[in-house]
Amino acid sequence: MRTDTTESWIRKLRAVAALNPVRGAQVADEAGNTRALDGLVVARLSGEPAPSIRADETPDERLWRSVVDNSIDPSPLLEEFRRMPRSDLDSGSLVPRALAPAVEVWTETEFASMHALAWLSISRSSPELLDRALDAARWHVTHTGPDNATNRPWAIHLFVLLSERDNAPEAALMAESLLHFCQISGGRPDRVSASILEDGADALERLAV
After folding, report:
1. Which ranges of 35-126 would DSSP assign to H, the alpha helix?
2. Higher pLDDT pick, 138 / 21
3. Cα angle, residue 68 at apex, residues 63 and 71 outer, rounded to 5°
4. Which of 194, 59, 172, 167 is nearest to 117 (CA)?
5. What's the rounded Cα separation, in Å, for the pair 172 and 158?
6. Residue 148 backbone dihedrals phi, psi, to 5 degrees
7. pLDDT tens-digit profile of 23-73?
């Protein structure tokens, strides 16, 4: 359900993204580096061709690949996630820690995967996929916390949606923190974060209906 709070978040995400707008079909960070994951997000935003498939794609890249290519079924990868052993460190996450052992890498992989899963719930008309993404967001609100989250605003829209659905101020704080941290270094989002914010606003518009 679209609320005034959701509407204000959509406007906020777009306004912050506009401080460093993405131009073209590929996005590079301020150092000129490009990553396949970021190119997949921009492909969804622009409708341009996605980066070429690599044999060593990471879990988040594989899920994003299925976002921009409807012929790719994400179910085998999601089943792989479900079947892998877990511990208290990842009991409610989407991506098992074993797939990205370094905690900083795992957190970004996890949040980017949750972000992709939200889009898959839209394109596949699957409330179950959205529920799984929100379950992971709910777990992170309790177990990750704003200070340990990535400095890229992946899945920010899921935390906004969760704050509305659960009446959870902690989820809203997570969203605010993601928005804040992606602007710390330069007073505005880096180019990659700006594309993520724009994409998150698009997803939030589709999900909050």
Report:
1. 36-46, 59-68, 75-83, 103-123
2. 138
3. 85
4. 59
5. 10
6. -105, 5
7. 655 566 666 677 889 999 999 998 888 888 888 999 999 999 999 999 999
Sign of the four-CA dihedral 36, 41, 42, 48: positive
Residue 23: predicted pLDDT: 65
Do residues 4 and 22 lie in contact, with contact meaning Cβ atoms separated by under 8 Å?
A: no
- 3-class DSSP state of 44: helix
Rounded Cα distance between 19 and 43, Å, is 20
Structural element, H or E, at residue 206: helix 191-207
> Rounded to whole angstroms, how far apart are CA atoms 191 and 130?
27
Report residue 29 CA to chain centroid gap: 17
Q: What pTM does this model have?
A: 0.94
Q: Are 94 and 114 in contact (CB under 8 A)?
A: yes
The structure tokens listed for 79 are 């089943």
Q: For the chain, what's the residue count?
A: 209
Instruction: Give the Cα-Cα-Cα angle 19, 146, 204 (nearest 5 degrees).
Output: 55
**In this structure, are residues 197 and 153 in contact, taking their beta carbons and an 8 Å threshold?**
yes
Residue 15 CA to residue 201 CA, distance in Å, equals 10
Instruction: List, for residues 155-166, the tens digit of each pLDDT value.
Output: 999 999 999 999
* Residue with the two structure tokens 């070429």: 52
Asked whether the beta carbons of 65 and 112 are under 8 A apart, the reply is: no
Q: Residue 43 has which token pair?
A: 């492909």
